[in-house]
Structures are given as C-alpha cells and as structure tokens.
Amino acid sequence: MQGYMADSEYGIPTRCPCGGRIIDDVRGKDDYDTLHGKQFFTCKNYKADGFHYRQPWVIGVQEHIERLTKRLEEVELVINWVPEVNNQIERLEAEVKALNGEVDNLTGQVYNLSVQVADLEKLCFD
Asked: What is the pTM of this model?
C-alpha cells in the first residue's frame, strides 16, 4: 500500500487518502531542521506511518507547475491550429454556397423539363 501512496503524491494534494484534509504546515526552528521554516502540504491526521501525506511545498508546487506547463503547451498547439481550421471552414462555406447555386440551377432545369413533359403529354394524349 505504501507504494500506491508514494505514486499518488504528485502535485499539490487536495485530500489525503485517509480522507483527512491537507493543511499548510511550516516546520519551526525547534524541529532540528537546517532549513528553518520549511513548508509542507500535510494531512491533518499525519502520522509517520507512510499512509498520510506530508509533501514538501516546493516539490508539490514544482510538479503542479510542470503539469500546468504541459497543459499550456497543448493549448498553444490548439490555438495555433485555429487559423487553419478557420480557413477550412471558409473553404467549405464557399463550396456549400457553390453547391447550393448548382442545386438551384438543377431544380430550375427539372421544373422546365416537367413543364415540357406536361406540354408533350397534352399534345400526344389530347
């Protein structure tokens, strides 16, 4: 289970797997740390048993920034693709307009042929 816990600690945690909320914890001067005031994302119910989150703030923020940077790169690709899609839309709209004109022309021809058939039927069968 501890392996799954380690794999789940990525980015800025919002909840601990135990259900506890995450608090901002600052290690004080009395904790025998060489980096006084080091910040952590810590489970409210934290125990040093490997089943609760206690992640250094810097690592969580760095991973979150990396994930956001990747998403930004993906969005930039989509944004760069938008002009090409707009050009395709304009070409398709022009093609639809031309095809609508052709349909109108063919509809007129069909009507003229229907009138001619009706006239021929009158001549032949009257």
From this structure: 0.52
